[in-house]
Amino acid sequence: MTTPSKGDENDTGSAAPAPPKSWAELLAVPVEPGGTTFDTLKARIRHHYELASEYYYSLWGEHIHHGYFLSASDTKERAQIQLISLLLQRSQLEKGSTVLDVGCGIGGTSRHLALNHGCHVTGITISGKQVEMATNLTKTAAASSSTGETVTAGGAAIKLGDGSARFLELDAETMGDFFADHGGFDCVWISEAMSHLPDKALFFRNAFKLLKKGGKLVIADWFRAEDLTEKQVGDDIKPIEDGMLLPPLCTQPEYVSFAREAGFGVLSAPLDISKDVAKTWEISWSLVQSPSLWAFAVTQGRDGVAFLQAFRAMRRGYANGTFRYAVMVFKKT
To answer: What are the E-state strand segments in the chain?
Structure first.
């Protein structure tokens, strides 16, 4: 990929201040804090994914999550599948399970679980654009496997092999009431989405409510390290939270506490795989230097600029050990 050209240093435009003219200049733009209320943050998250999901797909493909790199030769695509495989291994999720995929993005994990594990998956996302993309991509995938639609409550499930997938636009905070009459899921799966949720204790309670007895809560997420200094938080963590539209990041033990308070038992204790996923952001760093993405970020104002600046903060956080990544599984007993 090439970086944007520098341009004329003296050309500042006439009607408004000119946008940054180079990648380095973009990264140096001071960013004022965004909206701080949870409702404002949620609206910004929805807006971000409505606009940026096509870019995510063009850069990362159907799986919009970290890769789990086990060898130097692993491609990002293989590493992303290896992360799903790790979660399946840690959870021992049975084939044919009913799964609620929370924060499903454009449905990559939902399709994988349906097609390769025979699961019947309901994916939910706050973005209508992602529902549209996920549904279209799933119909395309179905064309090369078993096809057809099974009508289910709340939407049509697209058959994939022995499994199926459907996608709904839904705020995760309302899932407890929305699926109250569902009958229960075998698994609630949430990959890199809980960090976006302001009320994590509410999520754990809702997950417990929606799971059948013996059901599993499977988590992969971003965390801050424990016992950070104020300077470490300011230098490494705050830029990630701001750029990635996150409420304050939790530590891994805090998730365990939330789970226990909701009634869960620990099936698979937190496994920190930070060193095995950090390469994701080395690859991302090169991908986001695409001029088209740079131009898109500038048009989105402070959130677009903060988002790209956060890529550098992610790399720094992993390098400094202040930003962490872990997987864990809880069980409703």
So the answer is: 98-102, 120-125, 149-152, 155-160, 163-169, 185-191, 211-224, 264-272, 323-332
Query: Distance (Å, rounded) from C-alpha 253 to C-alpha 224?
Result: 11
C-alpha distances out from residue 3 to 40, 307, 310, Å: 33, 17, 18
- 247 CB neighbour count, 10 Å cutoff: 16
Residues constituting the chain? 333
Q: How far apart are the first and last CA of the chain?
A: 50
Q: In degrees rounded to 5, what are phi and psi of residue 230?
A: -60, -40
Q: What CA–CA distance (Å, rounded) separates 278 from 89? A: 21
How do residues 136-151 score in pLDDT, each as one tens digit? 999 989 887 654 544 4
Question: Quick check: 157 and 150 in contact, CB under 8 A?
Answer: yes
26-56 pLDDT per residue, tens: 444 444 444 455 567 777 777 777 766 677 7
Q: How is the beta sheet containing 98-102 ordered, strand by strand?
A: 149-152, 155-160, 163-169, 120-125, 98-102, 185-191, 211-224, 323-332, 264-272
Sequence-ordered list of residues with C-beta below 8 angstroms from that of 113, at least 6 positions apart, any chain:
84, 99, 101, 119, 121, 163, 165, 189
